[in-house]
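FW: tagging you since you asked about this chain on Friday. Here's the raw sequence from the shared folder, copied in full. Didn't touch anything.
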Amino acid sequence: MENEDLMRIQRVSRRFRLLFSALVVILPLLSLIYWLGFNHFPQEFVPLPIRVEAELSLLARLLGFVISMLPIGVVIAAMYILAKLFNLYEKGIVFASPTVKCFRQLGWVLMFWVLASLLYLPMLSGVVTSVNPPGQRLIAAQLGLSDFVILLMGAIVVLISWVMDEARKLEEEQAHTV
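HL: got it, structure written out here
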């Protein structure tokens, strides 16, 4: 790789590292602000296919925040791993064990995303509709094709990281062979 190309990769990687590092801090804060102001947002802002009939108590909003941290926590984990990956690229470490580890972790994070999504909707729908009159409280669940696609993508990323790791090991063995 030419020096100019490496410098460009390092410069772009630095920007992405900073972006993902900032998102690790910003995402939970935005979620907290959303849940604290939940009662003041229009119904269209509620990320559920369920209508909330009354204002939520502070306890219900805090529970909503905690439950929403399931998928947001997975996204934060992905942002953290991406920040680590771009930090490695920024240092010029492109094809090494730590970069392979980041790819493997990203694959697992994708698979955990599906699990977190499966838990998120039933728990959150129970909390936000707990204020509804009897007969209008709901527990919603959702599983779609996109969940299977994300699960498959996660498994493929883990597989690719495995292949990358084996290729890296072969290259290291050849480098030490006389």
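FW: The chain has four helices and no strands.
HL: agreed, and The chain has a mean pLDDT of 90.
FW: great, closing this out.
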